[in-house]
Each structure stands twice: as C-alpha cells, then as structure tokens.
Amino acid sequence: MTALTAQTIVRLTPTYRLQWEQMQDAYVLLYPDGMVTLNATAGEILARCDGVHSVAEIIADLQRLYPAADAATQLTADVLEFMEVARNEGWLGTV
C-alpha cells in the first residue's frame, strides 16, 4: 500500500457508512457487523473523505474549521496519521 500524499483522493470504503447519531451526539461509522463511535475530530475528517476532495483540500478545510489548532504542520501530520490508521482498518480507500 502506497503512502497517502497531498494529491491522494480518499473515500469511505463502500461497506462503511458515516452518519451523525443524535442520541450519541457523535458521528458513527456503520458497517455490516457493527458500529464504531468516533470522536469529533475523526468524524470531521471522515465526513470530508468523499471521493472528490484531495488530502490537501481536506486538511485545508480542517484548518479553517479549527483555526486555533496546533501549527499547520502538526495538524497535517495528525490528519495523515489518522487517515493511515483508517485505511489500515479498511474504513478508507483511494480513488
């Protein structure tokens, strides 16, 4: 599996569905065998993984959403690290 780059376009794997769960006040990732409750940041990242936007575009959008976040380089590293974990879990694929 090749590393994600700024130009990589990511999307949720078709067996997963992201949804806002009002009762849990959180995003959840639904799949045939269960559900994963996500923290707010993970939900915001996955909500942008739509198969249209590149990793760089997703990070830029998150920087606007979280302007008080750590330096841009740290935010970038954190997002890329989460995306790699999500990809290893099978949640994300590339276009």
Quaternary status of these chains? single chain
Unreliable residue runs: none
The geometry reads as globular
Structural class label: alpha+beta
Largest sheet: 3 strands, antiparallel
Structural domains: how many: 1
**Rg estimate, integer Å:** 13 Å
Using the 3D structure, state the CATH architecture.
Orthogonal Bundle
Strand order of the largest sheet: 5-1-6
CATH evolutionary superfamily: Coenzyme PQQ synthesis protein D (PqqD)
> What is the name of the CATH class?
Mainly Alpha
Strand content: 25-35%
Q: How helix-rich are the residues, as a percent range?
A: 25-40%
Question: How would you describe this structure to a colleague?
Answer:
The chain is an alpha+beta fold. The radius of gyration is 13 Å and the shape is globular. The strands form two sheets. The chain has a three-stranded antiparallel β-sheet with strand order 5-1-6. Strands 2-3-4 form a three-stranded antiparallel β-sheet, covered by helices on one side. It contains three helices and six strands. The longest helix has 17 residues, at 72-88.
